[in-house]
């Protein structure tokens, strides 16, 4: 068993650990994760309250588009919340609290993005896949992906105001 995957599994399945990066993003320190991770703020579909989750970026097809994976599948709370309300906010690198719009990718699109990710980041994919498989208890055959279209211009470092 891969030690890094075991550590990642522990991180993913221990709520206090899994939520720890959120505190860094809230304090403006999300840049320490570069552009490989982002903090997504979304609204609870029942409560309407703001919710946050930190996710790995698996695709960056253009300056204003990011792709993230739902490692726990379509039952992940953040995924279901975005299905209900696709307006969200993203913090990545030096950018904080920037408006974005979510779109659930169809399975064919998702397979293509994951294939590119596997090719471009083979070690990261190996660890991510292993950690997800340990966490969900079954092999990963497909992952739901979400495309986040950022609503700011590429050169900006601060969020644009909501309309």
Account of the 3D structure:
This protein has 5 helices and 6 strands, in the order H-H-E-E-E-H-E-E-H-H-E. It is an alpha+beta fold and 163 residues long. The chain has a single domain, classed as Roll (Pnp Oxidase, Chain A), CATH 2.30.110.10. A 6-stranded antiparallel β-barrel has the order 1-2-3-6-5-4. Strand 2 and strand 3 (65-69) form a beta hairpin.
Q: Which characteristics define this entry?
A:
single chain, 163 residues, alpha+beta, Pnp Oxidase, Chain A, six-stranded antiparallel beta barrel, 5 helices, 6 strands, disordered C terminus
What would the principal axes of the Cα set say about the shape? globular
Number of strands: 6
Instruction: Please name the CATH architecture.
Output: Roll
Overall mean confidence score, pLDDT: 85
Point out poorly predicted stretches.
156-163
Number of helices, counting only DSSP H or I runs of 4 residues or more: 5
Number of domains: 1
The CATH top-level class label = Mainly Beta
The H-and-E topology, N to C, reads as: HHEEEHEEHHE
Give the CATH superfamily. Answer: Electron Transport, Fmn-binding Protein, Chain A
Strand order of the largest sheet: 1-2-3-6-5-4
Cα end-to-end separation: 49 Å
Rg from alpha-carbon coordinates: 15 Å
Write down the CATH topology.
Answer: Pnp Oxidase, Chain A
